[in-house]
Amino acid sequence: VQLQASGGGLVQAGDSLRLSCTASGRTFSSVGMGWFRQAPGKEREFVAAIRWSGSTDYADSVKGRFTISRDNAKNTVYLQMNSLKPEDTAVYYCAQTSSTWLTRRAYEYHYWGQGTQVTVSS
After folding, report:
1. Residue pLDDT, tens place only, 8-36
2. Can you tell me whether residue 75 is helix, strand or coil?
């Protein structure tokens, strides 16, 4: 399985970005996908997850601002990020899990993308 993330960049506070992550190598429609992020000097943290069925979960810090979605025909998961804040600055990683349930645990995600940098200036 290979995951390719894209869409990061430098934006101002209040702006929006959409991250994309395209997967290859297995049946995308039957697996869960997640987004994590890691800021400098901090541990990797959960951002959002989407189950194969389309149900979703969000970290409290992004709830109401970020939306995770998937397009199974394109083997792609998206993270729409609105009302960005400087504290959202991090490297964002997409990941794939075989868990049949929504999970926030990084160790349950077995495949990871290379990360895409998101920088939000104040």
Report:
1. 999 999 999 999 999 997 688 889 999 99
2. coil
